Amino acid sequence: MTCVICEIGQGNGNIRKIFEDDKVMAYLKEKPCTFGHIILATKKHYTILEQVPDTEIAHIFNIANKLSTAAFESLGGGGTNIIIQNGSGAGQMHPHFTIEIIPRRENDGLNFQWQPKQLSEEEMSTVELTLKQETDTIAVGGEKKKEIIKEDDNTETLKEKEGEDNYLLKSLRRIP
Ligand SMILES: [Zn+2]
């Protein structure tokens, strides 16, 4: 299966490129939602944000920030929205990670407002607990969390939590 964004990266496709380095490229969205709508894509094929290596995340956000500033400085306006549609459930159209930089001006017709939901105390506590259990396993640049596993003979051993295979299976559900 060919990826539209990888094709663009290889020079195929008629795009209006506004920036490029060895890791990323930025071009104007063909049918923009505002004046100056930019797509920033990695040159390597990563499907969703969590597949992008930390070193590239730092680089791509640095470039996104600079593109946002460039749009702000050159096109004027009141600000930029920087958006990642991460996963098919979030409206991601192509299976290739991108960041969109959307310059904003007053009365541009875009609306990111939503009706706030009122959750019950119990619902809030449940979601808090569920997320906290998962965020327990976050360890940036640190050791993987370990857990005690009971063996058949009732001895306990310390093992690394969750193998790479399990992680890959889980992330597959989110890929468009
Ligand atoms: Zn791709």
Largest sheet: 5 strands, antiparallel
Q: In CATH terms, what is the fold-level topology of the domain at 4-104?
A: HIT family, subunit A
Radius of gyration computed on alpha carbons: 21 Å
Number of helices: 4
Helices and strands, in order, run as: HEEEHEEHEEH
- The strand count comes to 7
Helix content: 25-40%
Give the CATH architecture of the domain at 4-104. Answer: 2-Layer Sandwich
**Molecular shape:** globular
Question: Strands across the major sheet, in which order?
Answer: 1-2-3-5-4
Bound molecules: zinc ion
- Which regions have little confidence, pLDDT < 50, spanning 5+ residues? none
Provide the structure class. alpha+beta
Task: Kindly provide the name of the CATH class of the domain at 4-104.
Answer: Alpha Beta
Give the CATH H-level superfamily of the domain at 4-104.
HIT-like
Percent range for β-strand residues: 15-25%
Mean pLDDT: 86
The CA-CA distance between the termini, in Å, is: 13 Å
Secondary structure layout plus pairing:
Layout (H helix, E strand, L loop, with lengths): L3 H6 L7 E4 L3 E5 L9 E5 L11 H22 L3 E5 L14 E7 L16 H15 L10 E5 L5 E5 L3 H9 L4
Antiparallel strand pairs: 1-2, 2-3, 3-5, 4-5, 6-7
The protein binds zinc ion.
